[in-house]
Amino acid sequence: MATSRRSQDVGVVLHRRPYRETSLIVDCLTERHGRIGLVAKGARRGGRQSRLEPLREYALSWTGAGELHTLSSAEPQRGVTLQGEAAICALYVNELLMRLLARDDPQPRVYALYWACLDRLSDATDREPALRGFEYRLLEALGYAFSLQVDANGAAVQLDQAYRLDAQDGLVHAEPGEQAISGATLRALETDRWETHQARTEVRYLMRMALAPYLGTRPLESPRLLKRLRQMESGGG
User: Fold this and answer.
1) Which among 27, 110, 215, 216 has the fewest CB atoms less than 10 Å away?
2) Are 12 and 29 in contact (CB under 8 A)?
């Protein structure tokens, strides 16, 4: 029988859902323990635990040694205020972490990457570089990233060459007619400097291909919400 123990950490809410009649199951990304599942007993009746909100850091304490722990306390710390597209982008980041992180697997680097990304999302001109950089560095932290400096044969990436991503081998030279990513675009992703619409389009495609094997077949919610928001803003109903 597993021995119950008390743990403490800082963490942010990634997702919450009803549990039984009055409680919540809350998935949190924590600094030292990784993604954890917490049962917030009685949270749906009101009280302090009912205010567990995404995009806010909490000082958490919990007990238990199984897959789901019992939340003891949650004291608010820092947070960010995001609206519109920025808020949906933050939801997308949360969805990525829910899909890619196993529970109870410490990922201290991911926690720092998460907050660095959130801090950039309020700036519309910096939003896409923030997301693409987070995607790549998340894959890197989890051991899934491909090199941006050398191709599958170990040759240095050339700025004027065209590449595509092979799921097994990494970057390979693209054939004529294939959707490709330029070496210059790969350098933009590496250095976090975005100067052209082409770079944004190519990196978006590149990271979509890189993430696909790890996301599963169930669609993410955030792209649907973003499309709906843009329709509303353009008067599309």
Assistant:
1) 216
2) yes
Asked whether 94 and 82 are in contact (CB, 8 A), the reply is no
The stretches of 58-143 forming alpha helices (DSSP H) are: 84-100, 108-121, 127-141
**Closest to 164 in 3D by CA, of 172, 153, 176:** 172
pLDDT tens-digit map of 68-97: 999 999 999 988 999 999 999 999 999 999
Contact between residue 131 and residue 89 where contact means Cβ atoms under 8 Å apart: yes
Is the pLDDT at 164 greater than 80? The verdict is: yes
Q: In CATH, what number does 8-79 get?
A: 2.40.50.140
CB 28 within 8 A of CB 40: no
Structure tokens at 128: 């896409």
Burial of 14-24, coded b for 16+ CB within 10 Å and e otherwise, reads bbbeebeeebb
The DSSP secondary-structure symbol of 8 reads E
Amino acid letter, 208 = R
Pick the CATH number of 84-233 from 1.20.1440.120, 3.40.50.720, 3.50.50.60, 3.30.565.10: 1.20.1440.120
Amino acid at 209: M
The pLDDT of residue 21: 84
Write the Ramachandran bin of 172: left for phi over 0, alpha for psi from -120 to 50, otherwise beta.
Answer: beta
Q: Round to whole Å and give the CA distance between 91 and 24.
A: 19
The beta-strand segments (E) located in the chain are 6-19, 23-30, 34-40, 56-63, 68-79, 162-166, 170-173, 181-182
Domain boundaries, the chain: 8-79, 84-233
